[in-house]
Amino acid sequence: MKKILSCLLSFLPLVLFAISMFFIFFMEISSLFWETTEPPFWFVFLAVFMVIFTLLMVIAVYAVMIYYIVIACRSPYLDTSMKALWSILLYFLNVFVFPVFWFVVIRKEIEMKESKKFREDIM
Fold first, then answer.
1. Quick one: pLDDT at residue 121?
2. At residue 40, what are phi and psi to the nearest 5 degrees?
3. Crossing angle of helices 94-101/2-31, nearest 10°?
């Protein structure tokens, strides 16, 4: 369960970013077809929705970033230099590094814990 949840968390900011880019593109294209100088009501509603959606996206990015940095710093499978490297990468390239971090660190860490638990159950 933890593996699936953390995988979804790693792709969540990219999905939210794609949705926001779609809405921005839609708003720009639809503004070309206005017949008045005043924007229609639905456009104002969509603009307010975009502001709220963008704030939620930023909160989600920072929450996932902090969660992954804590995982990187607490991981017993990474040495000190790798913990520092992952922390720096997660901070500066966050949205693009989240899936890579999940694949390289979290997935392997969960598999190692499961195999260790499996070996302990056998013996």
1. 58
2. -70, 165
3. 150
Query: To 10 degrees, what angle do helices 94-101 and 80-92 make?
Result: 140
Contact status, residue 23 vs residue 47, Cβ threshold 8 Å: no
Model pTM score: 0.77
Nearby residues of 57 by Cβ (< 8 Å), 6 or more positions away: 13, 16, 17, 20
Among 45, 5, 8, smallest CA distance to 26 is for 45
Amino acid residing at 22: F
pLDDT at position 6: 80
d(CA 110, CA 116): 10
Sequential DSSP letters for the chain: -HHHHHHHHHHHHHHHHHHHHHHHHHHHHHHTT-SSSSPPHHHHHHHHHHHHHHHHHHHHHHHHHHHHHHHHHH-TTS-HHHHHHHHHHHHHSHHHHHHHHIIIIIHHHHHHHHHHHHHHHH-
d(CA 6, CA 110): 11
